[in-house]
Amino acid sequence: MIRFSFSSCRWLLGLFCLFTLTAHAQNKGKRDPYAAYLFVYFTGNGPTEEAIRFATSSDGLNYKALNYNQPILSSADISASGGVRDPHILRAENGMFYMVVTDMHVAKNGWGPNEGMVLLKSKDLTHWQSSKIHVPTRFPQWAGVNRVWAPQTIYDPQQKKYLIYWSMRKGNDPDVFYYAYANADFTDLETEPKVLYASPGNKSCIDADIIRKDGQYHLFYKTEGSGNGIKQLLATNLTGPYTPPTPDPYLQQTTDAVEGAGVFKLNNSDKWVLMYDVYTKGRYEFTESTDLINFKKIDGQVSMNFTPRHGTVLPITTTELRALTKQWATTNNPVLPGFFADPEILYAKKTNKFYLYPTSDGFDNWSGKYFKTFSSDNLVDWRDEGTILTLGKDVSWANRNAWAPCIVEKQVNGQYKYFYYFTAAQKIGVATADNPTGPFTDSGKPLIDSKPEGIKGGQEIDPDVFTDPKTGKSYLYWGNGYMAGAELNDDMTSIKPGTQQVMTPDNTFREGTYVIYRNGKYYFFWSEDDTRSPNYRVRYGTSDTPLGKITVPANNVVLEKDKERGIYGAGHNSVLQLPNKANPGRDEWYIVYHRFNYPNGINMGESAGYHRETCIDKLEFNADGSIKKVQPTLEGIKPVKLGK
């Protein structure tokens, strides 16, 4: 038996208490690690676009909009002009979050003058307080100022205060960078503006972003005048003097016009990202560096389901990410960044991943010449796998109109093969590969290049490939203005003689055939109307065989516009049954389709028909096998888990 004296117990108790208090103090001072990112941005010059929006990312490269890409604050409530631009967000030393924005409403007042900025603060990223600063009122010597642009904030460790810096101009003078210190509660400027940097070449300088690394301050900015672009200045003190490095190159990796440079560090990495707004093209470009001197383009790794203008990125914790997504739902439609249409979806058994094969859109009159693919393991987060086929380069018989592809995975001699059917110059070709991401090799000639017998109009476009689970036979469908179908030979690159036939279901058929099999029925989907029309939509019919007569139900609209949600032109679909190795009959289905660009497509006229976005929503069936009408959404679907 072990015996303890009272004094021994008291000593042990004291030791335990000391250990507990020490551990508590250490944990209290320890901050949660950064595990995600918050992107703060605005979207353009339209009446509702000059407002603060949020998006989040788990890796700093692939972002999803929050709040359906709508503002998280009312610009009318926080600003003097009714609009705000160029948001910059900062995590403060005291645990607060500070944000500064340009007080400017181009949609209402044009490009000038603008005379102020807005300061915002928050304890939790979801609830914000704001203060307006009108520079000529606050500093009378600045009467006549006509630009107060792109303010940003940084902590000054010497002054132990927050320094706000921005570009400012009077009359037609060059834009010059100024700074002033914020007051203790971040509601006002407590010092007069002083020059931070003025170009010795008498050029305008705008959109500064200052980063401190290894005791040195790096100021990234846009220089205007002769030779526009992103440059860098260096200083050992926050307030300067700032001088250019040697050499002094432009840092953007594009010949297009850029502005709004922003730099942030990737979590748990030695890599920094320099991003900037390619504002004439409606896109962002990301570059990467380990020294903030040399940068390389990494756009192939980046995706966004929104189109940002001049914003900034803040690393955040998992707890903060949860709070943000609880406050504002994540927007998962569109699922791909930019303009893509006619989406084909594939689940590949070889890789246990999903793949999207769309038309590369955004070209006037559908004049794209290349095809891309994207991969995902959850249907929500998609990785750009690059270009897989280029007309004129990889396809010798056509060099225009790369449209509406489809793909099938087949086992040939025990090996997975991929057969990719595509439209080129209003003909249908086929290319093959050993992997879903290619490289693909074209067959060297069109598979379909003429109309079926008896058909005088329409186009030979929009292929769909379907493998019958009952027989293992594969079929090809195609047509615009008519629906044709035929059985494929075992080589998958030729049509079985005598099987081609016209299958047009009714006069609502326009294009975009897609076929699935469920519970003994073959379901045929097609698109009605013109893809440039807001009324473009999806209908369906059923058949008892892959090439049989199609029965059209009375109420057969599957998907169409939703005016209240601002969704138009929803059509040209593919369909996915979620796979599960443990449960092959898993009755969970998704519809993949394109729609007009949201929210601007409805105002784009005819060009909305070649500025389309790819979306995914659930597809459900009634007990009698009929298809429930799909509600197109802005929020999209939640990530799915694949069965093992």
From TrEMBL:
Keywords: Carbohydrate metabolism, Glycosidase, Hydrolase, Polysaccharide degradation, Signal, Xylan degradation. It comes from the Bacteria. This is Glycosyl hydrolase family 43. The keyword Signal applies. GO terms for molecular function: hydrolase activity, hydrolyzing O-glycosyl compounds. Residues 1-25 form the signal peptide. GO terms for biological process: xylan catabolic process. SUPFAM superfamilies: Arabinanase/levansucrase/invertase. InterPro entries: Glyco_hydro_43, Glyco_hydro_beta-prop_sf, Glycosyl_Hydrlase_43_Enz. Belongs to the glycosyl hydrolase 43 family. It comes from Spirosoma oryzae. The record marks D462 as: Important for catalytic activity, responsible for pKa modulation of the active site Glu and correct orientation of both the proton donor and substrate. CDD domains: GH43_Bt3655-like, GH43_BT3675-like.
